[in-house]
Amino acid sequence: CQEGAVCTAAALLENAIAAFKTPGLRDLGHSAPYMHTGQFDTLSSVLRFYQGVAAQARAATLRNADPQLARIALIEQDIAALTAFLRALNEDYN
């Protein structure tokens, strides 16, 4: 939107398309540490974090929780399988 102009939702959307690049999952296993603070060294630690956050969201003990968090339902077997899947997306550089 131009200076002083009223921005409509359509104009904002048009200006936002391709403005943000979401990181892909390819080679995720080679990019530790994880999270914006680098607080986790393994993919399974990240998944366990989200497992706990989801439980807090369902119990309404997480302040300002996104409603989507409560829909995450991981069990331990899911974590192992999901970690293996994410590692399978790594490129073999040898």
Q: What would your notes on this structure say?
A:
- There is one protein chain.
- The chain is mostly helical and 94 residues long.
- 39% of the residues lie in helices and 0% in strands.
- Helix 2 (43-58) packs across helix 3.
Helix proportion of residues, in percent? 25-40%
Q: What is the percentage of strand-forming residues?
A: under 5%
Distance between the termini: 48 Å
* Major sheet description: none
Determine the structural class based on helices, strands and strand pairing: mainly alpha
Provide tags for this entry:
about 40% helix; about 90 residues; mainly alpha
Write the layout of secondary structure elements.
Blueprint: H1 9-16, H2 43-58, H3 76-88
Helix pairs in contact: 2-3
Structure, briefly:
The protein is mainly α. It has helices at 9-16, 43-58, 76-88.
